């Protein structure tokens, strides 16, 4: 008789423990399913359709070498496109995101693109000429349509 009381007490504890552990397992499985759905939706938002594209920019106002235009199109890094005329057939499209710590660089002046955050300097091709920036400004592909006086920037 005594042993059956002990047995039923153990069963009650066993059921509670079983339910507790089952709840933990089911909760973990539900959370991992939700996490997988969240991650899947994130990857579809950051896929190629968002981070790559083209934009056509009117360059008719760039009549002298070194002149630039800031296009309001927003690059994947969140900055506008800095278009610089190198010569009549060569244009450079640069990100304005400084490669040092992510500040937006200033507009070109005197052949230099300056970052006022920590003093990095870049030439009109985006190459580092001074300061702590470890790499050039990101440069994007440019296709010139001379007849239409436009360039298409691929990013
Ligand atoms: S962020 Fe441009 S120099 Fe530091």
β-strand percent reads 25-35%
Q: Which percent range fits the helix content? A: 25-40%
Distance between the termini: 81 Å
What would the average pLDDT be, to the nearest integer? 80
Q: Which secondary-structure class do the elements indicate? A: alpha+beta
Question: What fold name goes in the CATH topology slot of the largest domain?
Answer: Rieske Iron-sulfur Protein
Structure in words:
The chain is of the alpha+beta class and 155 residues long. The chain has 2 domains: 1-45; 52-154, Rieske Iron-sulfur Protein, CATH 2.102.10. Helices cover 31% and strands 29% of the residues. The chain contains 2 helices and 9 strands; from the N terminus they run ααβββββββββ. The protein has helices spanning 2-45, 48-51, and strands spanning 54-58, 68-74, 80-87, 90-95, 113-114, 121-122, 128-130, 139-145, 150-154. The strands form 2 sheets. The chain has a 6-stranded antiparallel β-sheet with strand order 1-9-8-4-3-2, with no helix packed on it. The protein has a 3-stranded antiparallel β-sheet with strand order 5-6-7, with no helix packed on it. A hairpin with a 6-residue loop joins strand 5 (113-114) and strand 6. The longest helix is centred in the N-terminal third of the chain and has 44 residues, at 2-45. Mean pLDDT is 80; it is low at 1-9 and 28-50. FE2/S2 (inorganic) cluster binds next to loops.
């Amino acid at each position: 008789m005594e042993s059956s009381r002990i047995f039923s007490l153990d069963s009650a504890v066993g059921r509670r423990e079983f339910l507790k552990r089952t709840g933990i397992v089911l909760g973990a499985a539900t959370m991992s399913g939700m996490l997988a759905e969240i991650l899947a939706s994130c990857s579809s938002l950051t896929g190629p359709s968002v981070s790559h594209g083209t934009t056509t920019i009117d360059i008719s106002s760039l009549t002298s070498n070194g002149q630039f235009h800031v296009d309001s199109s927003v690059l994947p890094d969140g900055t506008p496109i800095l278009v610089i005329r190198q010569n009549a057939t060569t244009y450079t499209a640069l990100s304005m995101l400084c490669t040092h710590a992510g500040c937006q660089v200033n507009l070109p002046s005197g052949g230099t693109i300056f970052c006022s955050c920590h003093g990095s300097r870049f030439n009109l091709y985006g190459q580092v000429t001074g300061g702590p920036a470890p790499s050039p400004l990101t440069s994007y592909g440019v296709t010139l349509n001379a007849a239409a006086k436009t360039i298409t920037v691929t990013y």
